[in-house]
Amino acid sequence: MAEQQQHASNSGAYLIRGAAILGGAAEDLLIRDGIIAARGPHLDADGVGVGDATVIEAAGLVALPGMVDIHTHLREPGREDAETVETGTRAAALGGYTAVHAMANSTPVADTAGVVEQVLTLGRAAGWVDVRPVGAVTVGLAGEQLAELGAMADSRARVRVFSDDGICVHDPVLMRRALEYVKAFDGVVAQHAQEPRLTAGAQMNEGEVSAVLGLAGWPAVAEESIIARDVLLAQHVGSRLHVCHVSTAGSVEIIRWAKSRGVNVTAEVTPHHLWLTDELARSYDPVYKVNPPLRTDADVQALRAALADGTIDVVGTDHAPHPSEHKECEWAQAAMGMTGLETALSVVQHTMIETGLMGWADFARVTSTAPAGIGRLQDQGRPLEAGEPANVILVDPAARWTVDPSKMATMGRNSPFAGRELPGRVVATFFKGHPTVLDGTLNTPYRWPDDAADAPAVRS
């Protein structure tokens, strides 16, 4: 791969020359004024007005729609010791993302119109990706009364995804009411499926390894029982349900059954659950402590198969940065969570593409098109065609790199892939036609126009 830029002008026009579109035939893409102005072979010889464009030589690179993360923890406001919107979105751009959904478990909780609008403003001030706030389902994530769902939906942030992620909405009556409420504006409840009474004091997956290590086990049924309940509630109400970070083979079967019955349910899997297993807990290294826990190899294989066949719809990073002192301690006291924005593409390439389970077109579906649809994002996950928004990434699939958390843009150093060699490298990220990443490094952020105070567009 060689990326060569001809800085002929500062026109905001870019000619991406010779990229494999979704891993297929090599073509050119002309980006101008925030959209894909043209697509085809040899555009500079076809008289389509590319003379003033900066040329990016993309032979050997794969062009994909910008990735969309349905599940990101940016921590701000209130937990700036772990991450900020600025640092988290820098990491997202470097990882190939052009939009992220910021989870609600900030301090204060994003359970009012005021807080979600604050997160939206912070995201636009940063300018690296489109930050879409997720609203809390319940006030303070306490699971006792519904938050201001309608006010958040009608706010400038136009919230369409609601979640108490990190805590399960365990009360079935409250969950039913939430599903009924969001149906009015085509919202979705994203559930952290975990029956709290089955996981009190749990430290890792319940199984052979937990028994050997003497750590309190986290049974698969704690996840599966909530999913089973919630798909029935969603069917009864006729509303949209999204299941966060599916981790067990049994959960896959429940979701598959629900979809066969026509239930409007979608599901996500994290990159780490596509690869890592509970065997890593034998090291007692808290970097491998996560919620839900790493499961068995049989679960990993079931999750991969489900992502490939569409039972699981999307990859969501569950990017969860923590200060070092919250991870560099004994296992029982360590925080749960892993970073993921800057490694997700490579991990999915390793686990799904290099294994032959999917190709790059499928990769675009599970990392861009489908998550944009779940979040009802109008200008994300779009085809790489003329007239479409220019949210585009260029990937070098032949590149290899070794994960060094100290060199990442995220403030979190808790990557479970530290020291591992991974395939694939994001060479360029175009957000609204602006290159936030060039040659694998941060370029400059997108600057929102003065009229961007208007509500972001969502799909009806």
TrEMBL record:
Q: Which family does it belong to?
A: Belongs to the metallo-dependent hydrolases superfamily. DHOase family. Class I DHOase subfamily.
Q: Which top EC class is given? A: hydrolase
- Gene Ontology cellular component annotations, sorted alphabetically: cytoplasm
Please verify whether the record's keywords include Zinc: yes
Q: Where does Zn(2+) 1 bind?
A: 71, 73, 165, 318
Taxonomic lineage of the native organism: Bacteria, Bacillati, Actinomycetota, Actinomycetes, Micrococcales
Q: How is the cofactor bound?
A: Binds 2 Zn(2+) ions per subunit.
Tell me the PROSITE patterns matching this sequence. Answer: DIHYDROOROTASE_2
Pfam families the record matches? DHOase
Q: Which residues form the active site?
A: 318
Q: Which InterPro entries match?
A: DHOase (IPR004722), DHOase/Allantoinase_Hydrolase (IPR050138), DHOase_cat (IPR024403), Dihydroorotase_CS (IPR002195), Metal-dep_hydrolase_composite (IPR011059), Metal_Hydrolase (IPR032466)
Q: Which cofactor does it need?
A: Zn(2+)
Q: Which reaction does it catalyse?
A: (S)-dihydroorotate + H2O = N-carbamoyl-L-aspartate + H(+)
Record Gene3D superfamilies: Metal-dependent hydrolases, Urease, subunit C, domain 1
A molecular function (GO) held by this record is: allantoinase activity
Entry's EC annotation? 3.5.2.3
The pathway noted for it is: Pyrimidine metabolism; UMP biosynthesis via de novo pathway; (S)-dihydroorotate from bicarbonate: step 3/3
What GO biological process terms does the UniProt entry carry, in alphabetical order?
Answer: 'de novo' UMP biosynthetic process; purine nucleobase catabolic process
Q: What is this protein called?
A: Dihydroorotase
Annotated keywords: Hydrolase, Metal-binding, Pyrimidine biosynthesis, Zinc
Question: Which positions fall inside the Dihydroorotase catalytic domain?
Answer: 62-249
The protein's matches in PANTHER family, at most eight in alphabetical order, are given as:
ALLANTOINASE
In which residues is Zn(2+) 2 bound? 165, 192, 245
